[in-house]
Write a structure and sequence with these properties.
The complex is a heterodimer of chains A (514) and B (110).
Chain A (H helix, E strand, L loop, with lengths): L2 H16 L4 H9 L5 H8 L6 E3 L22 E8 L2 E8 L10 H16 L4 E7 L8 H17 L5 E10 L4 H5 L2 E5 L4 E3 L3 H8 L5 H5 L1 H8 L4 E3 L2 H14 L36 H8 L6 E3 L7 E8 L2 E8 L10 H16 L4 E7 L6 H5 L2 H14 L4 E10 H6 L9 E4 L4 E3 L3 H8 L1 H6 L3 H16 L3 H5 L5 E2 L5 H11 L18
Parallel strand pairs in A: 3-4, 4-5, 5-6, 5-7, 6-8, 11-12, 12-13, 13-14, 13-15, 14-16
Antiparallel strand pairs in A: 1-2, 2-3, 9-10, 10-11
Helix pairs in contact in A: 4-5, 12-14, 16-18
Chain B lengths: L12 E5 L2 E5 L3 H4 L11 E3 L4 E6 L6 E2 L4 E7 L2 E6 L4 E6 L6 E2 L4 E5 L1
Antiparallel strand pairs in B: 1-2, 3-10, 4-6, 4-9, 5-8, 6-7, 8-10
The chains are: A alpha/beta (514), B mainly beta (110).
C-alpha cells in the first residue's frame, strides 16, 4: 500500500469515529437542546486549537455479546487545546455512543487526560453526559470511576478542575464533579443524583421526576452541588470562559493581572447602606461600587444566598469576595452559608487569590433545625478556613458584626491582615436589644414601667457600644474609614500585601470540620 | 438602576436574632425546613418508607417493652419493630401489605 492510500485509510477511519453514535443518535442529542461532545469542546476552546487523542481506542468488554459491538472512541472524547490562549486539558463524554456509559477504556481515556493536566499544570475541564457505569463491564467500570476520583483528589488545589454537567450524571459518576472546584449546570439538561427516580419509586414508593430530584435548579438552589446555572449550553460555555479569566492556571501562579478600571459611576458607595442595622440592602451593590468596572462574577448565586461569594478585580488583580447578604435571611451564618463561604475561602487560598470580606451580620441563625443540622460543626468550617488561609485577607465591617459572627468573618483574631470599619459599624457580643434584655434583666423586670426602662437601657447600650471605636481602641480594627475611601484603601492594602509570606507549624494536614 | 432599588415593603419578612427583628427576604429552603416534634414513645412511626410484612399485635393487647410489634420491609431489609415501653395497644393503623410513607404512625400505645 502506498503512503497516499494509507493516509486515505487513516482519514476514513477518523471519519468513522467522528460520526460518534451515528446519525440517529446525534439527531436525538440535538433535539434535546444539546450539542455533541466535539461541538461542545470546539465551542469552548479557542478557534482551531483542539487536538484530539485516543480516537481509535476500543472497548474491552467481552461478555453479553459486547465483543460484537463497536463503540466509537468508547464514548468519550479527550484532548488538549487553549482557552484565552493558555493550555487546557479537556474530556467530553459522548452520549450518542452507548449513552456515554463508562467502561474500562472510556475511563482510561479520561484518566490519561487527567494525568496530562496535572503533569503540565493546566486546568482540567470535564464535560459529563453519561448514563453511568457500563453494567456489562462490571467491576472494571467501578475501577474506572475510582481511578478518576483518585486523580480528582490528587489534582485538587494544584490545578483548577471544572465539571460541566450537560446531560445525566448519575450514580457513582456524580462524585467526580463533587470533588472538583466548580460545577456548571444547564437548565433542563443537567441531571445529577445518586439514586434515580425509578429506584426511589421501587424501593421507597416515593414518586419524583428527574428534574425535581436532581435537575439544574435543585442543585443550584437546594443542594449547593452546582456553582453556575445557565439556561442554555451556549450560556454555560460563556460562564466557563469568564471564570477562567479570573483564576490562575495552577497553584504556583498568581491570576493574570489585567488593566485597571474604575467602578461605574452609577454605583454610589455612600448611598447604599441604610443607617438602621435592621434594614436590608443588596451587598452586591456595595461590591460593584468597589471592584474594577463594577464587574462582579458571583458563584453559587441561588444557594445559601445569605452569603455572597465570587470574583471581582481591584487594580486589575483578581480578588475573592466573601460577604454577608443582609437582603436574604438578614445575612446570618447558617449551615449552608458557612459551607459555601468556607469552601470558597479554601479555593482562594489554594490558588493565591486575596480575600476581601464584607461584614454585616447579626450572628448565627437561631433555630432547632439549624442546631440539629450541625450548625456548630458547619459554622466551625468558616473559622477553620479563615484561620488557615495565608493569602492576603482584608476585612471591611460595613455595619453590624455581632457575636460569633464577628469572630468568624475574617476578624483580626483569625489573622486578617487589615480590618477596616465604616463609622456606622457596631461590634458587640449581640445587638443592643438582646444585650440590654440580659444585662438589665432585673432592673427591667422590677421597674414600674418595664418598657420604658428597657428602651432607655437599649439606648444606653447603643450609645456606648454600637460603634467601631471600642474595637478600634483595642487595635482590633486598623482604621475607621469613610465609605468613599473604601476602594482606595482596600486597593492599597492589596498592593502592599503582594509579597505576604507566613507559614504555620509543619504538619501533614489539618483536620477541618468537614 | 440596581443601587437605587428600594425593595417593596410587602416582599420582606422578618427574622429575629437575639431579640432584634431584621427585615429581609427568606429563602425557598428556609421555608421548606421541617418542624421539630418532641419524640413520643407512645407512637410507633415508620422511619423510612416501606411495606408492612407482619403485624403481631391487636388493639387492646398488653405489650411489654422490647416486644416484637411489626415486621416492616424497607430497602429490601425486613426490619423488626419493637415496643419502646410497656403499654396497651390503642390503635393499629396499618395492615399486612400496606405500603406506607416515612413518618406514618403505625401503632399507638396507651
Amino acid at each position: 500500500m502506498s503512503l497516499k492510500r494509507k493516509i486515505r485509510e487513516l482519514q476514513k477511519r477518523r471519519q468513522k469515529v467522528l460520526e460518534g453514535g451515528g446519525e440517529k443518535a446525534v439527531e436525538k442529542q440535538i433535539a434535546m437542546g444539546k450539542l455533541t461532545a466535539r461541538e461542545r469542546i470546539i465551542s469552548l476552546l479557542d478557534k482551531n486549537s483542539f487536538s484530539e487523542y485516543d480516537l481509535f481506542v476500543e472497548h474491552e468488554a467481552r461478555d453479553f455479546d459486547m465483543d460484537k459491538k463497536i463503540l466509537h472512541g468508547d464514548g468519550v472524547v479527550i484532548g488538549t487545546g487553549t482557552i484565552h490562549n493558555k493550555p487546557v486539558a479537556i474530556f467530553a463524554q459522548d452520549f450518542t455512543v452507548a449513552g456515554g456509559s463508562l467502561g474500562l477504556m472510556h475511563s482510561r481515556k479520561i484518566t490519561k487526560i487527567m494525568d496530562y493536566a496535572l503533569r503540565m499544570r493546566m486546568p482540567l475541564i470535564g464535560i459529563n453526559d453519561s448514563g453511568g457505569a457500563r453494567i456489562q463491564e462490571g467491576v472494571n467500570s467501578l475501577a474506572g470511576y475510582g481511578e478518576i476520583f483518585f486523580r480528582n483528589t490528587l489534582s485538587s488545589g494544584v490545578i483548577p478542575q471544572i465539571s460541566v454537567i450537560m446531560g445525566p450524571c448519575a450514580g457513582g459518576a456524580v462524585y467526580s464533579p463533587a470533588l472538583t472546584d466548580f460545577v456548571f449546570v444547564v437548565d433542563k439538561i443537567s441531571k445529577m443524583f445518586i439514586t434515580g427516580p425509578e429506584v426511589i419509586k421501587t424501593v421507597l414508593g416515593e414518586e419524583i421526576s428527574m428534574e425535581d430530584l436532581g435537575g439544574a435548579r435543585v442543585h443550584s438552589e437546594i443542594t449547593g452541588n452546582a456553582h453556575f446555572f445557565a439556561y442554555s449550553e451556549a450560556e454555560s460555555i460563556n460562564q466557563i470562559k469568564k471564570l477562567l479569566s479570573f483564576i490562575p492556571w495552577n497553584n504556583t501562579e498568581k491570576p493574570e493581572k489585567i488593566k485597571k478600571k474604575e467602578p461605574k459611576k452609577e454605583f454610589k458607595i455612600d448611598q447604599i447602606v441604610p443607617d438602621d442595622p435592621t434594614l436590608p440592602y443588596d451587598v452586591r451593590t456595595v461590591i460593584k461600587a468597589i471592584v474594577d468596572d463594577s464587574d462582579f462574577f458571583e458563584i453559587q448565586e441561588g444557594w445559601a444566598a445569605n452569603m455572597v461569594i465570587g470574583f471581582g478585580r481591584l487594580g486589575g488583580k483578581t480578588i475573592g469576595f466573601v460577604c454577608n447578604q443582609p437582603l436574604v435571611l438578614a445575612g446570618v451564618l447558617d449551615v449552608d452559608s458557612s459551607d459555601k463561604a468556607a469552601r470558597f475561602i479554601r479555593y482562594c487560598d489554594a490558588f493565591n487569590i486575596p480575600i476581601v470580606t464584607l461584614v454585616d451580620l447579626p450572628g448565627y441563625m437561631p433555630g432547632i433545625d439549624q442546631e440539629h443540622a450541625g450548625v456548630i460543626r458547619h459554622g466551625a468550617k468558616v473559622l477553620y478556613a479563615y484561620s488557615e488561609a495565608t493569602v492576603p485577607k482584608i476585612t471591611l465591617i460595613i455595619r453590624k458584626a455581632y457575636g460569633g459572627g464577628y469572630i468568624a468573618m475574617s476578624s483580626r483574631h483569625l489573622r486578617a491582615d487589615f480590618v477596616f470599619a465604616w463609622p456606622g459599624a457596631e461590634i458587640a457580643v449581640m445587638g443592643p436589644e438582646g444585650a440590654a434584655n440580659i444585662i438589665f434583666r432585673k432592673e427591667i423586670k422590677e421597674a414600674d414601667d418595664p418598657d420604658k426602662v428597657r428602651k432607655q437601657k437599649i439606648k444606653e447600650f447603643k450609645d456606648k457600644f454600637a460603634n467601631p471605636y471600642v474595637a478600634a481602641a483595642k487595635g482590633y480594627i486598623d482604621a475607621v474609614i469613610e465609605p468613599l475611601e473604601t476602594r482606595s484603601l482596600i486597593l492599597h492594602a492589596i498592593n502592599i500585601s503582594d509579597n505576604k509570606g507566613i507559614s504555620g507549624p509543619k504538619k501533614k494536614h489539618g483536620i477541618p470540620p468537614f | 438602576m440596581e443601587n437605587q432599588e428600594t425593595p417593596k415593603k410587602s416582599r420582606f419578612k422578618s427574622i429575629n436574632v437575639d431579640s432584634t427583628k431584621y427585615k429581609t427576604h427568606l429563602t425557598k429552603k428556609y421555608n421548606l425546613r421541617k418542624k421539630w416534634y418532641k419524640p413520643n414513645d407512645n407512637l410507633i412511626t415508620s422511619f423510612i418508607p416501606g411495606t408492612i410484612i407482619k403485624v403481631f399485635v391487636k388493639e387492646g393487647q398488653q405489650v411489654k417493652k422490647g416486644e416484637k410489634i411489626i415486621i416492616f420491609e424497607a430497602m429490601k431489609m425486613k426490619n423488626r419493630v419493637y415496643a419502646m415501653k410497656n403499654g396497651t395497644i390503642k390503635n393499629v393503623n396499618v395492615k399486612v401489605g400496606d405500603m406506607i410513607p416515612r413518618g406514618k404512625v403505625m401503632i399507638e400505645l396507651d
